[in-house]
UniProtKB/TrEMBL annotation:
This is DUF2913 family protein. InterPro entries: DUF2913 (IPR021316). It holds the Pfam family DUF2913. It comes from Serratia marcescens.
Length: 177
């Protein structure tokens, strides 16, 4: 791009596919990212320029080089969830027809779990990962652990209804906090 050669989406895409193929062949990256490179390469070959490789690679670059606090709302939420999962928490995305808090508290009574309604995730986060409206979670287990994970990643939240063994927690958009 700096030389004025890769200005068209097709040219950029072709360069990135070749670069990924060379990186894979020459084993430029650690084995831990080999599957990611393979996935990107396969996606680029299957979907062509519509795969959006440039955007994906830019996202990966920023997510690995910028502090978590400077990442998008969705990235920080995902980071918090991954942290909770590493501590043995269950994370579940629940269909609207199954979203009955009393039933879910009973179902997850013996484990620590963070549950969210699928439609709220889809509706309240845009393509850039910014949150536009509150997202309600069911916390089954020690609420303080979830609050600490959210606080560490500068996620704003408000506690709601308390239940035996947990509570409802609303993740708030930055503008509402």
């Amino acid at each position: 791009q700096q030389d004025g050669q890769a200005l068209l989406p097709l040219t950029i895409h072709t360069f990135l596919v070749r670069w990924l193929a060379d990186a894979q062949k020459q084993r430029r990256f650690p084995r831990s990212v080999a599957t990611d490179i393979d996935s990107l390469l396969r996606l680029g070959r299957q979907k062509g320029p519509a795969a959006g490789l440039l955007n994906m690679l830019e996202y990966l670059w920023h997510s690995c080089t910028e502090p978590v606090a400077q990442q998008s709302d969705l990235f920080r939420l995902t980071h918090a969830i991954e942290h909770l999962k590493s501590q043995g928490w269950v994370n579940a995305v629940v269909a609207d027809e199954e979203w009955v808090p009393e039933t879910l508290y009973t179902e997850y009574a013996d484990v620590s779990a963070l549950l969210v309604r699928k439609s709220e995730l889809q509706r309240h986060f845009n393509e850039q990962g910014q949150q536009s409206a509150p997202v309600e979670f069911i916390v089954a287990g020690e609420v303080r652990v979830v609050c600490d994970a959210f606080d560490t990643r500068e996620l704003c939240y408000a506690a709601g209804e308390q239940h035996a063994g947990g509570c409802l927690l609303s993740l708030m958009p930055v503008a509402d906090a």
